[in-house]
Design a protein that fits this description.
It is a single chain. The chain is an alpha/beta fold. Helix content is 40%, strand content 15%. It contains 11 helices and 14 strands. Strands 1, 4, 5, 13 and 14 form a 5-stranded parallel sheet that branches. It has a 5-stranded mixed sheet with strand order 6-7-10-8-9. A two-stranded antiparallel sheet has the order 2-3. A hairpin with a 4-residue loop joins strand 2 and strand 3. The longest helix is centred in the N-terminal third of the chain and has 21 residues.
Length: 307
């Protein structure tokens, strides 16, 4: 029987979901409150995970990176910052290279380990991203969500149309399109979707439907040996006060503002903080009881490099 793989990865940033903005104060709560919850759960269920840190939060709170090292987790890069106007799908090649170089150096200096895995902030990439990754020494990307259809609720929707035809198993990507197979040295780890994504956000919005997605992914694994991949953010596990005021508008286009800011913000408030913890634990229990092996992206990459 072939081994079943369950990848769980974590995007670690300063985003305040409660207030729809970036906040260094939120970053400190992520470090002090969200990360310990995740690490305790992973230790309880024998999970090995990849943590994608922005360079910004790592530079602010270096111990947020160091705290995962004794547990055998992987340090990955989540770009330099999480600002929507500095997303990788709007940056030129030279700018992407600069962001990757800076964030990689910050993380490697703190951890003392080589960083080869990347996930773009807000999973926004363009045709230059594979070149930028190769130029800066990355070998792994996880920014493509195969067959995900809720992209109209996020920024970069036009580029995300390419996801509809992307492979569902890990693959080596094209040199100018991470959503297609090719001959580059970048291994893409798709983010699981069954029309809607298998991620912490949707788990909180609709726990029942997420369980349906989970069962379908388990069935797909049995049929095609496709690894199951789940994403959570430690900022989903913290409680914050909601400050009154207008929702930050990140686009001049009203439709984008309505979908990607106002409606998405309201949805993301569901089951935040302490309410999210038992929902996450149920996902871990499900795969633990079915003998899935939980490893980091880096470990899978090195194990399957010559296969």
């Amino acid at each position: 029987m072939k081994e079943r793989y369950f990848f769980i990865s974590n995007d670690v940033e300063t985003t305040s979901l409660w207030n729809h903005t970036l906040s260094d104060i939120t970053g400190k709560k992520v470090w002090k409150e969200g990360m310990p919850v995740l690490l305790n759960l992973y230790q309880k269920y024998g999970i090995k995970s990849t943590f994608f840190f922005t360079g910004h939060i790592a530079r602010l709170y270096p111990d947020i990176v160091r705290m995962i090292l004794p547990h055998g987790h992987e340090v990955g890069c989540h770009g330099l910052v999480h600002d929507s106007d500095k997303a990788f799908d709007v940056l030129r090649l030279e700018e992407q290279i600069e962001h990757l170089q800076q964030s990689k150096k910050i993380l490697e200096d703190i951890s003392g380990r080589e960083v080869i895995s990347f996930r773009a902030p807000a999973i926004r990439v363009n045709g230059n991203t594979p070149k930028a990754l190769l130029e800066t020494g990355f070998r792994i990307d996880s920014s493509i969500a195969s067959q995900r259809l809720d992209f109209m609720f996020s920024f970069g929707a036009r580029h995300k149309l390419k996801w509809l035809l992307s492979p569902r198993k890990p693959y080596f990507a094209s040199s100018n399109n991470l959503a297609r197979k090719g001959t580059s040295k970048i291994m893409e780890f798709p983010i699981n979707s069954i029309l809607l994504p298998y991620v912490g956000t949707f788990m909180r919005i609709s726990p029942a439907f997420t369980n349906v997605i989970r069962c379908i992914l388990h069935y797909e694994n049995k049929l095609r040996n496709t690894p199951v991949s789940f994403i959570i953010h430690p900022n989903e596990l913290i409680d914050e006060e909601i400050t009154k005021g207008r929702i930050q508008r990140r686009s001049k286009n009203y439709l984008k503002y309505l979908l990607a800011d106002k409606i998405r913000y309201r949805l993301k408030l569901r089951n935040l903080g302490q309410k999210a913890i038992p929902l996450l634990e149920k996902q871990l229990i499900y795969f633990s009881q079915r003998d899935y092996k939980s490893i980091t992206f880096r470990e899978y990459y090195h194990t399957h490099l010559d296969q």
